[in-house]
Write a sequence for this structure.
């Protein structure tokens, strides 16, 4: 088995974060009732004509610049002709002959160090509608709300050699595009989709083997499983004397298997030709320079700055910059005057814990940076203790509350009345003679139990450090 | 010069164009297409080396619109002409993926 | 003289002078349709009720001076490949036999805003593919000048409706001669504007890079006035051009002194009917006598226009017509097994022979392995043809020649041999390939009484040169339409 090398190229579709579709003024918003975000253009009504959304072009150029591509100064749209019900015109407007970006690369980190993955091209195109299948009926139903949503397709060179490299490459693309604000790149929701072109060849052989294309991969896990499964399938075929057929295969993640999609009626001859309804695009140096100038600070630059400006450890900067949203929250919260390390702790600790528990993406963070800053201040001033702060944070994560008001309303402020605290501590000492004597006999740990008992009696509203100090004093 | 269109070609073009022809129509289509291609082959007489293919007559470029939502829900109209409809969606024969 | 003998401009003026009401004009047209459309079959849809309702509304707006333009109150017919909101739009095809658009084309909106009243939708070759209006799913249209003959096509219904006074003017579309050739066969004025002058939004596409909407009407003055209304820059059509020179009526000047006119020898070569040649050359002499400088020249490449055109138009059509699949609108076959069978049966039953022929050809020339040899080659020849015209217009203000090699053929004669039919477009087709404006005006009649058209071609956006020359010719020779229809007592 190890005598084979896997050769992988990716076609990554990314839905752009525009307000409207690529060729009409319909909203791209998710979740509307079927066909409520449609018009004559995106449903292929006779007589309708497309007009390009400028923002699509800007995003495509931005992604191209960020992935070191040459921007095609004179580019065009082409029609890709194929019949399918989710494709209202039965041609998709895409780019074949003159794609907007070409010859780029991104660097990924692998076990063997940095590796450059070539980007063959990036082109702009329109998304298809959605087919809904009726279990009981012999029918399917078409919803064109997604039809005409802008996509870019990023086509890599066949430079990838393993599932790990593929995932590193996708992570890198995702990060770059998210930082640009060009897309939220959510695999699960389909705003980022990867088709895997894979072939195997005996180690040392120069020619590529016959490749297959795998579709329907909507998580990193599925991508890994599909790559491993397809590699094995192809090796098995070769070992048993069969030939790998060039075909499109659909991955079924539940079955852990793939099957060929091609039928007699799919000729896969798309008869591309320049779309006569759209005029060429000719980009000036200025247009490109403006987009370059508006480029955000990317992850690596942020990491370096966080280390120098906020003295954060590398571990922290790595996690915080792992998503643009997280980095934005960090920077905003610090701007509100919160201590950078404390903000970082909240993001790495509580935030990541809740995201993981609820299977959310950092993009889903909705709490306000101002609230987090307030919460940190409440804790710093000892108005609330750490346990209370965590409880408040959890509420704040899901609900739009003001931590100061919430703490007041719920009476969660720490009791700073020394007299009241002394009375409770004296009571605890009186009722826990065993622990008291343990402590006095040198069992340092026993004091922890006494602190706990005091906190319990105070209903959590005490500062554990003050309790500890008072216990020591009274003992 | 004479083009000959095979059964396979007509079959293949039928798949591309989603047209189904009976035998008589196929024979006619083979002849018509061969005649037209013979006629079109006349273009081969012209030397077009170095000529840029002209898809647009005018040098109109960079026509685009701003990213502003202009359309509202028009489902009732969009679905009105559909031969098959259910719950605001277009009904089609079952597809499998 | 009957109300129907008025031109569009005369009618609108008479309505404003309260000699007629809009309702009277609409009723006269409806009556005329009742009287003769069974025979001519100009219309696919007549919206009598809607037109009468609209007549009342428009009359009020004329009375309160809201509508004061030259077309206010004038009944108009629209070719059935131009979308009209709420009114059946079939492209003369079974596949759209029940299609009711939910929006109107930009040109139709412009006409409505000018107070024109839509009477109905005119017959045509299916999806504008044909030169005789015989490929219509709704039966052929007949030539009102001689009902044994075709009206030409594809805008044959529009040309016939104007010729038979079943409307005061009409919109057609021209992809390879589809306005000029039927105008010529029916003896009316027809203009194909420069590509991009009139918005294509709402025109159901045949060959998108060639299609253009334009007027068919009774005289040159009407033509200029209609052009002023329908030409505009439309942000919904990316190929629409923003021009400030849409004041076409300013070119209605009877003066061609010093105008340089090129007469291409290639347009008078073998294949041209002798009577047509003579009549057209006589018309050229009229302009010469009025002071135009006329010169013969070799345009070149004329024989290559038709194969170039059919490659490009068929390729674009094969793609444009993919959307007719039985899912979103129009015809769907009754019985089928599965998706692809539904597609194939729907389209095979929904499209007629000529449409299928062009879809097959178009799919083939774009298919893998043939794109460069056929499609790309045609785009290169198109560039050469454009260049030949550029060189001609460096020397001439307009080019003049015949519209078609013959007068209208007999019904049923053309469909037998497609290539022979395609040849009837030989003088009109290169105008579309080069995006130029071209006009057909009547210049006489052959021995059988069939009209002959004179074609005037100008460089892009120079419609005014054409209008000026045509107006001068018409001033010298009189209004052809009136001379024919008014001469026949009692016909109207």
């Amino acid at each position: 088995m190890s005598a084979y090398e896997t050769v992988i190229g990716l076609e990554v579709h990314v839905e752009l974060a525009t307000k409207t579709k690529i060729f009409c003024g319909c909203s791209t918003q998710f979740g509307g009732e079927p066909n409520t975000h449609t018009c004559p253009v995106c449903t292929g009504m006779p007589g309708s004509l497309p007009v390009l959304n400028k923002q699509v072009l800007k995003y495509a150029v931005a992604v191209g610049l960020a992935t070191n591509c040459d921007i095609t100064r004179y580019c065009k749209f082409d029609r890709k002709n194929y019949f399918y019900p989710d494709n209202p015109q039965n041609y998709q407007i895409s780019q074949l002959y003159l794609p907007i970006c070409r010859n780029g690369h991104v660097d990924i980190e692998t076990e063997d160090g940095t590796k450059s993955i070539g980007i063959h091209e990036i082109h702009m195109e329109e998304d298809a509608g959605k087919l809904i299948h009726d279990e009981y009926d012999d029918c399917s139903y078409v919803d064109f709300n997604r039809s005409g949503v802008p996509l870019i397709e990023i086509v890599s060179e066949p430079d990838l050699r393993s599932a790990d490299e593929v995932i590193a490459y996708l992570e890198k693309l995702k990060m770059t595009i998210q930082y640009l604000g060009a897309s939220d790149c959510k695999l699960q929701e389909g705003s980022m989709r990867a088709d895997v072109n894979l072939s195997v060849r005996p180690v040392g052989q120069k020619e590529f083997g016959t490749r297959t294309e795998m579709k329907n991969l909507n998580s990193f896990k599925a991508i890994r499983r599909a790559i491993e499964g397809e590699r094995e399938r192809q090796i098995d075929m070769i070992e048993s004397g069969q030939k790998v057929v060039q075909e499109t295969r659909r991955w079924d993640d539940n079955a852990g298997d793939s099957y060929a999609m091609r039928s007699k009626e799919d000729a896969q001859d798309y008869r591309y030709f320049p779309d006569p309804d759209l005029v060429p695009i000719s980009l000036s140096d200025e247009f490109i320079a403006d987009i370059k100038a508006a480029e955000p600070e990317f992850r690596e630059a942020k990491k370096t700055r966080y280390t120098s400006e906020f003295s954060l450890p590398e571990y922290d900067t790595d996690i915080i910059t792992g998503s643009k949203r997280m980095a934005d929250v960090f920077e905003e919260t610090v701007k509100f005057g919160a201590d950078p390390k404390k903000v970082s702790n909240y993001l790495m600790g509580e935030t990541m814990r809740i995201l993981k528990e609820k299977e959310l993406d950092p993009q889903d963070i909705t709490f306000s940076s101002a609230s987090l800053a307030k919460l940190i201040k409440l804790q710093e001033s000892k108005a609330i203790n750490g346990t209370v702060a965590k409880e408040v944070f959890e509420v704040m994560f899901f609900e739009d509350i003001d931590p100061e008001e919430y703490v007041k309303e719920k009476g969660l402020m720490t009791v700073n009345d020394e007299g009241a605290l002394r009375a409770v501590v004296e009571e605890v000492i009186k009722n826990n003679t065993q622990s008291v004597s343990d402590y006095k006999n040198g069992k340092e740990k026993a004091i922890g139990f006494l602190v706990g008992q005091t906190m319990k009696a105070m209903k959590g509203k005490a500062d554990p450090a003050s309790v500890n100090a008072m216990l020591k004093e009274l003992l | 010069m004479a083009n000959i269109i095979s059964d396979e070609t007509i079959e293949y073009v039928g798949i591309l164009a989603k047209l189904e022809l009976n035998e008589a129509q196929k024979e006619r289509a083979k002849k018509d297409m061969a005649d037209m291609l013979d006629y079109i082959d006349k273009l081969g007489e012209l030397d077009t080396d170095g000529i840029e293919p002209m898809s647009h007559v005018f040098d109109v470029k960079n026509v685009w619109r701003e990213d502003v939502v202009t359309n509202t829900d028009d489902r009732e109209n969009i679905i009105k002409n559909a031969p098959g409809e259910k719950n605001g969606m277009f009904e089609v024969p079952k597809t499998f993926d | 003289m009957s109300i129907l003998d008025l031109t569009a401009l005369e009618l609108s003026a008479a309505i404003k002078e309260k000699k007629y009401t809009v309702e009277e004009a609409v009723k006269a047209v409806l009556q005329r349709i009742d009287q003769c459309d069974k025979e001519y079959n100009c219309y696919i849809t007549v919206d009598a009720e809607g037109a009468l309702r609209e007549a009342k509304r428009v009359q009020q707006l004329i009375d309160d001076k809201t509508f004061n333009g030259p077309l206010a109150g004038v009944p108009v017919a629209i070719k059935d490949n131009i979308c009209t909101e709420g009114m059946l739009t079939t492209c003369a095809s079974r596949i759209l036999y029940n299609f009711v658009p939910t929006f109107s084309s930009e040109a139709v909106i412009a006409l409505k805003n000018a107070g024109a009243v839509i009477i109905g939708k005119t017959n045509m070759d299916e999806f504008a593919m044909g030169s005789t209006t015989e490929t219509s799913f709704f039966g052929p249209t007949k030539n009102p000048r001689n009902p044994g003959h075709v009206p030409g096509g594809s805008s044959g219904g529009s040309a016939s409706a104007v010729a038979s006074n079943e409307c005061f003017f009409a919109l057609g579309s021209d992809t390879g001669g589809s306005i000029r050739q039927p105008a010529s066969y029916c003896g009316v004025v027809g203009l194909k504007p420069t590509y991009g002058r009139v918005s294509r939004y709402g025109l159901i596409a045949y060959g998108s890079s060639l299609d253009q909407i334009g007027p068919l009407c009774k005289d040159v003055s009407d033509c200029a006035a209609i052009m002023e209304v329908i030409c505009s820059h439309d942000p919904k059509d990316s190929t629409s051009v923003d021009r400030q020179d849409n004041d076409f009526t300013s070119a209605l000047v009877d003066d061609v002194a010093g105008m340089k006119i090129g007469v291409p020898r290639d347009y008078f070569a073998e294949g041209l009917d002798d009577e047509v040649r003579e009549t057209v050359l006589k018309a050229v002499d009229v302009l010469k006598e009025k002071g135009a400088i006329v010169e013969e020249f070799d345009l070149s490449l004329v024989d290559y226009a038709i194969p170039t055109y059919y490659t490009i138009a068929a390729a674009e059509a094969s793609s444009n017509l993919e959307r007719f699949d039985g899912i979103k609108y129009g015809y769907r076959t009754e019985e089928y097994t599965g998706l692809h069978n539904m597609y194939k049966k729907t389209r095979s039953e929904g499209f007629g022979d000529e449409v299928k022929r062009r879809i097959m050809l178009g799919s083939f020339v774009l298919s893998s392995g043939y794109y460069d040899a056929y499609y790309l080659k045609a785009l290169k020849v198109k560039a050469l043809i454009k260049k030949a015209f550029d060189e001609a217009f460096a020397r001439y203000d307009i080019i003049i020649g015949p519209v078609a090699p013959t007068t209208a053929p007999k019904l049923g004669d053309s469909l037998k041999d497609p290539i022979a039919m395609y040849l009837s477009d030989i003088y009109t087709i290169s105008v579309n390939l080069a995006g130029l404006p071209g006009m057909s005006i009547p210049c006489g009649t052959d021995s059988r009484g069939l009209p002959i058209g004179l074609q005037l071609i100008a460089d892009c956006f120079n419609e005014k040169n054409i209008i000026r020359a045509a107006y001068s010719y018409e001033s010298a020779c009189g209004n052809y339409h009136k001379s024919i229809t008014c001469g026949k007592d009692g016909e109207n």
Chain A touches chain B through 57 residues (CB under 8 Å). Residues 92 and 242 of chain A are 35 Å apart (CA to CA).
